[in-house]
Structures are given as C-alpha cells and as structure tokens.
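User: Please fill in residues for this 471-position structure.
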C-alpha cells in the first residue's frame, strides 16, 4: 500500500478497508479500491464491517461519475475537459463512494441502497465545499487525488513543523478555538454559534472551507443574519445546518444584498411564506446573482411556463437555478422532448429530473422500458403522466417492482395507464394490497388497487364481490 501526503482533503471523510492517520505526521494510507464501509456499534464502540456487493459498487461509481461530471460542467468545464477528468479520477471516485458509505453507514448495514437523488444530494454539497476551498484548481485536485499537485517533490512529505495548508487558512482555523488571555473564554461569535447548537469541530470544518467565517463579527455580521432568519420563522435548530451549507450568508449585507435578493425572488413568484423551508433546503439561492437566476428563468419562459408556475418551481425546487442552462437544462429538455413528453409540464411537475445525468440516469431507464417491450411513445406517455418516474433507482426501485408486477397477471399496458405504480412501496403497499385482493377473489384496476385509501379500497373490493355474486 502506497502512502500519500494528505494536503487537500480532510481525513475524516474517508471510509475504506484500511485507514491510518497520525497526529505527528500529516499522512494517510489510501487503498487502491474501496470495498468496505465501517460503522460503529456496541457499547465499546468497536467497528463492525459490512461488505458492499461488487454489483452495487459498480452502480454507485457510475452514479458518482455522473454527479461529478455535472458538477464540473456547472463550474464551467467543457464536455471534453469533464470527460478527461472523469477518465483520470478513479481514486477520487472511490473516495466519493466511500463518502456515501460513511454518511449512510447505518443504511448499508440494514441492507438499504441509496437512490439516485439520495446519492446526488449527498455528494453535491461535498463537491461544493471542495470548490469553495480550491476554486479553479479543483480539476487538478480531482485528477491527482489523494496526492495533491505540487511544484516540488520535496513539498509532498512535510515535517510536522511545516504548514500543510495555506497560512491564512491555518490561522483562521486556529482562531476558532483561541481563547482570550484574561478570562480564557472563546471568541464571542464562537460562543454564540455553540449556543445555537454548533460544536467546535463543525465550526472548524466551516472555517476550513471558508476561512473568512472566522473573522466575521458577532454583532455586525453573524447575529443580524441569524436573528433575521429566526424572525422569518426558520426553526432555531435549522440554523447550524444553514450556516454549514452556506457560511457566506453571514458575510452578506442584510439591507444591500440579502433582503433585496429575497424581494427580487418574491417578484418572480417565490412564496414568501415558504422562506423558512426554502432557506433550509437550499440557502445558496440567496447568494446567486440576479443574472444567474434570470438565465434559468428565461429558459423556463422559453419552455412556455407561466410566471405563476415558475414561482411555484422556484419555491418547491430552488436548486433549479444551480443547473446550467446550456449543459444541463436544455439538453435534458431536448431528451425528454424526443420521448414525446411535454417538457414544460414535466419540469413543473418534477423539476428534479433536470438535475440528472442523461447518460448515467435517463438513458438507462429508457433502455429498461424499451427492453421490456414498451415503445418510445408509451414511455413518453408514462413520464408525462408520472414525472417522478425517472428519478427512481433501477436496482432499488424499478427492477424489483417490475419483477413483482410480472407475477400479478396484469397486462403491461396497465403501467402505461398507471405508471404511478412505481411510486408506491413494494413491501408496505403493493404486496399487501395484492395479497388482500387475491384473498377476496376479485380483480380491480391497477390504480384502484394502489391509489385508494384503505376504507375506499375495502369498499371497492366488497362492491366488486357483490357484483360477481349478483351476476
């Protein structure tokens, strides 16, 4: 096993078969492949290991590649540069997969696989934090991971007394736990953040990503923003998460930037009553320029969406403005249009579709239905009727539910009429309902089996049974 210098990425994100870290030397041992995720269990905190299947690993790596590709393109990389970076980033992709295993270790131990959207939601904030830290050099960091690019080989291994990170960043991080010489108290804004529910390590992590955070004054920067959010109705327990996601908010002027931005977004249709939820879900929205927001809005108008519906999209899915129009929104719209779907209606119903990769997410699902005998026209009808269809995982959702559907005796055309079938829980809804229907000896339409409430489902069964008896 080769030993590399840990210069760019924090060691606590690594979840691998073997892991070593020392405080005297800034080095880590990084394995060539990641196969196992560790999870603490037991009173003594010992580690139990669960092997992730090779098939699942391959699928997760492809998902991670798709997320990284979209992220690089969103930051301005061309298709060619993004493709080249992906081809040279095997170790970084392994790291992203290990990040998933570390973040959701309890799920893996319970045999729960992540969906496409869950993978994306787990990785994008992490990639954003790396971009904030490394900026235009992120591509070099990715391609050279875990051995960061350096000018001189002597810089690769450093002595304990040499700074690993930029001196300004080191100083900023050190300020977090610095106390005044007289009372031995932490700096006022650190105390304030701790009282809000943050811990020292969390504040250090934010400062490591965004050093300016250490220098924000309590009364002039942090407290006014926090109190403003609280006045809006943001729950106090959500504040630490919001600040962790977007510490830049504390550096924005309330009167000159933050409030005018909110008024601007409200003029576009954002529901002011939904600000608490919106800020919690996607605080970065308040830091985007008007030009960036209008690029997305103009495209939504181009698709024929009304101002009212655009406002609803911004409220329900504010991260739509983070998608690149030319690299993401337009190509995705073209793809769904090729299936015969009404793109405007689809985007309104399920804007999350437009954050997915065409190659890694959309085309495999289309191929899945084509392989099972559906025509492109039928697939277009299905996605038009149920916008969330393409957001589901093939392995976690579509395949097992399809396999069960084959045992029901219903014709394939029923899924064209009622693609919402794939949105119901297989174990908690689909199987129990079919079991009840089988015992009753009657047969309902697929949508009746699943969409009716329990009481109405019982009524429909009894009505059908009576009809059969009378007949």
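Assistant: Residues filled in for all 471 positions:
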């Amino acid at each position: 096993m080769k030993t590399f210098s840990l210069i760019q990425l924090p060691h606590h994100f690594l979840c691998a078969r073997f892991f070593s870290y020392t405080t005297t030397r800034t080095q880590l041992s990084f394995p060539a492949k990641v196969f196992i995720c560790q999870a603490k269990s037991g009173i003594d905190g010992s580690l139990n290991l669960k092997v992730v299947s090779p098939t699942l690993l391959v699928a997760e790596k492809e998902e991670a590649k798709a997320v990284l590709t979209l992220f690089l393109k969103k930051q301005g990389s061309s298709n060619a540069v993004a493709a080249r970076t992906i081809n040279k980033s095997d170790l970084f992709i392994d790291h992203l997969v290990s990040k998933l295993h570390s973040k959701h270790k309890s799920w893996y131990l319970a045999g729960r696989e992540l969906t496409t959207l869950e993978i994306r939601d787990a990785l994008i904030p992490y990639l954003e934090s790396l971009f904030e830290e490394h900026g235009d050099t992120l591509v070099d960091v990715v391609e050279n991971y875990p051995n960061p690019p350096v000018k001189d080989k002597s810089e690769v291994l450093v002595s304990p007394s040499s700074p690993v990170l930029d001196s300004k960043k080191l100083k900023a991080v050190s300020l977090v736990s610095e106390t005044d010489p007289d009372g031995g108290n932490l700096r006022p804004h650190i105390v304030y953040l701790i009282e809000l529910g943050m811990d020292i390590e969390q504040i250090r992590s934010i400062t490591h990503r965004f050093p300016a955070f250490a220098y924000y004054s309590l009364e002039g920067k942090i407290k006014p923003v926090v109190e403003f959010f609280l006045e809006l109705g943001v729950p106090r327990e959500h504040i630490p998460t919001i600040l962790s996601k977007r510490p830049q908010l504390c550096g924005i002027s309330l009167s000159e930037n933050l409030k005018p931005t909110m008024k601007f977004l409200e003029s576009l249709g954002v529901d002011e009553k939904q600000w608490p939820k919106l800020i919690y879900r996607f605080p970065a929205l308040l830091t985007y320029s008007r030009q960036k927001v209008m690029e997305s809005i103009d495209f939504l108008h181009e698709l024929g969406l009304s101002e009212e519906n655009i406002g609803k999209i911004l409220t329900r899915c504010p991260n739509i403005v983070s998608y690149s129009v030319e690299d993401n929104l337009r190509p995705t719209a073209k793809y769904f249009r090729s299936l015969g779907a009404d793109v405007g209606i689809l985007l309104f119903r399920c804007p999350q579709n437009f954050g997915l990769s065409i190659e890694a997410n959309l085309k495999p699902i289309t191929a899945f239905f084509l392989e099972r005998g559906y025509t492109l026209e039928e697939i277009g009808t299905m996605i038009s009727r149920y916008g969330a269809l393409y957001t589901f995982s093939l392995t976690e959702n579509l395949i097992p539910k399809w396999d069960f559907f084959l045992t029901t005796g219903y014709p394939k055309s029923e899924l064209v009429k009622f693609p919402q079938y794939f949105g119901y829980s297989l174990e908690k809804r689909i199987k129990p309902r079919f079991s009840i229907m089988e015992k009753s000896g009657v047969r309902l339409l697929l949508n009746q089996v699943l969409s009716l409430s329990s009481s109405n489902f019982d009524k429909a069964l009894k009505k059908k049974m009576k009809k059969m008896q009378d007949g």
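For context: The first helix runs from residue 54 to 74.
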